[in-house]
Structure formats: structure tokens, C-alpha cells
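Figure 3 (text version): C-alpha cells given as input.
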């Protein structure tokens, strides 16, 4: 079930992506409107990260194309921000939290100019929004995973992009941080930014996202959450795995609370 956006800011057309000639995404076709928070949802190995990497031009598709604001990525790169899945980034080298956020400004200021007071104030403001300004001078490697994640989101904010791709931004963050992030994303969407979030919790997906891309190698459903995020579609995307999980859940429940015959 696919419902298309009227004036799409993102258009993914017939995208097929392979690793060493083995396709992991097949004929993916969807659009997104501006000012929405879209969730990319699907089981492990569904190709969610691959989809984002392909949109960001990091993996060449074997067929199909992607358009952002009606253009290929190269023409609008400065309007696009990407926060990779955290475990894929090695932050072991010595760089301060403020420097990491300032990296988000390079697209705006060019690599040759040094950051000025305005850039720094802007970077501090973004850290503040993520509740991380007190850590500005710390080395990024000294922070916890959840704190690092907030810094990467601050860096994305500093880019002042129009469309944001975030791969599992809630992985390893506490519930309070998750709420803070989702509130921030809502503010951004209200300011007509478009945010695409890879997420794997089905329960909260329904509350967080106004648009859903349900993926399992193929596009199972895409469109407004209320219309496409149905039990039937979820079942299709998760197939047997969800059944299995439900059975395991039942089993554990029975073990924890055995029913006694009177
Ligand atoms: N660099 C790679 N080389 C080969 N196969 C890969 C590579 N990255 C991912 N895959 C495979 O592609 C499929 C989709 O992976 P991925 O996009 O990371 O899924 P998800 O993010 O939904 O968990 C998986 O089967 C995974 O094993
Ligand atoms: Mg992934």
C-alpha cells in the first residue's frame, strides 16, 4: 500500500540496491511531503540503513534514482543532513565536543574559513538545545554513547539543513533524552523541515511519526501513519518473525505467571 505525497521533497524511484550483486533492496518507490516526521520501520536486516546510505550517495544503486527537492543530491547537498547509525562511526580520535558540532558548519562556511564567533555561538546554541553545552570542551571519546548521540544531533542541527536523515537516533539513549529529541524533531517539522528517522520500536513509531515507510527488502507500505500503518501491513513486513516473537512473549508470560487450576 503506497500513498504518494502531493508535492514531494523526497522522491525515491524504483530503487534497487545490491551488495556484491546480491540485491538487498528491490524496486523501492515512495515520496515524502515537506514538514513531516517519517519513520523508516522494518525488522533487522530489512535494508533501512542501506536505504539511507543510498539516498546519501554512499552506495550506488543498481537501478533507480533519488531526487531531493526535485534535484539530484549533488545539487542540493547543503540542504541535506545525515546522522549515521552510531556504531558505524569511530570517534576515538581526540576532538572536542564543540569541534564536532562545528563540523556541521563547514558546509555553510567552506573548508578554508575558520569558524568565527558567530559559528561558535550557533554551535553552542545547538549543544544547548540537546542539553549538552556543559560538555563543549570535553573530548567526544570521553562521553557515554547516549551523550555522543546528542552531540551528533547537535551537529546535524548546526547544519541548518532542510531535510534530515537519522539512522536509529534513539539507540542507546535514555527515555528522557528520547523525549527531548522527539520534541525537538516536532519543532523542526513545524518549521517545515522534513525528518526521516530509522526506528525499530513499533509501539512508539505510531506516536512519533506522521508518515511511515515500512520496509523489508521491498517496500511493504508507505504513506500517512493512520492510513498505512495497519496490523496487516506490519504483519506483512515482519512476517513469521512477529508471530515467533508473540509466541515467545506468551511463553515467558506463562512461565512468570503460571495459571493455577483451582
Ligand atoms: N557492507 C555490506 N556488505 C554486504 N552486505 C551488507 C552490507 N551492509 C549490509 N549488508 C546486508 O544488507 C542487508 C540490509 O542491511 P541494513 O541496511 O544494515 O539493514 P537494517 O539497517 O534494516 O538492519 C542485511 O542482510 C545486511 O547483512
Ligand atoms: Mg541499520
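Below: residues designed for each position.
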Amino acid at each position: 500500500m503506497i500513498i504518494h505525497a502531493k508535492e514531494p521533497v523526497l522522491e525515491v524511484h524504483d530503487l534497487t540496491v545490491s551488495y556484491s550483486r546480491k540485491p538487498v533492496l528491490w524496486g523501492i518507490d515512495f515520496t515524502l511531503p515537506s514538514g513531516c516526521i517519517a519513520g523508516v520501520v522494518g525488522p533487522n536486516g530489512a535494508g533501512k540503513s542501506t536505504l539511507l546510505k543510498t539516498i546519501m550517495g554512499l552506495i550506488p544503486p543498481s537501478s533507480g534514482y533519488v531526487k531531493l527537492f526535485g534535484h539530484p543530491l549533488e545539487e542540493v547537498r547543503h540542504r541535506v543532513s545525515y546522522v549515521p547509525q552510531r556504531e558505524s562511526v569511530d570517534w576515538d580520535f581526540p576532538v572536542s565536543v564543540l569541534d564536532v558540532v562545528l563540523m556541521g558548519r563547514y558546509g555553510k562556511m567552506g573548508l578554508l574559513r575558520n569558524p568565527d564567533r558567530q559559528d561558535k555561538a550557533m554551535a553552542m546554541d545547538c549543544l544547548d538545545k540537546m542539553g549538552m553545552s556543559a560538555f563543549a570542551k570535553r573530548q567526544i571519546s570521553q562521553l557515554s554513547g547516549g551523550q555522543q548521540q546528542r552531540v551528533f544531533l547537535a551537529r546535524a542541527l548546526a547544519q541548518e539543513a532542510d531535510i534530515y536523515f537519522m539512522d536509529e537516533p534513539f539507540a542507546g539513549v535514555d527515555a528522557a533524552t528520547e523525549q527531548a529529541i522527539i520534541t525537538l524533531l516536532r519543532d523542526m517539522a513545524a518549521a517545515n523541515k522534513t525528518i526521516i528517522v530509522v526506528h525499530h520500536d513499533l509501539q512508539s513509531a505510531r506516536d512519533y511519526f506522521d508518515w511511515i515507510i515500512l520496509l523489508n527488502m521491498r517496500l511493504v507500505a508507505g504513506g500517512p501513519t493512520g492510513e498505512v500503518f495497519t496490523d496487516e501491513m506490519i504483519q506483512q513486513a515482519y512476517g513469521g518473525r512477529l508471530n515467533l516473537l508473540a509466541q515467545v512473549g506468551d511463553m515467558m508470560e506463562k512461565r512468570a505467571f503460571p495459571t493455577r487450576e483451582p
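The beta strands are 10-19, 22-32, 37-41, 63-68, 80-83, 163-167, 194-199, 211-216, 218-224.
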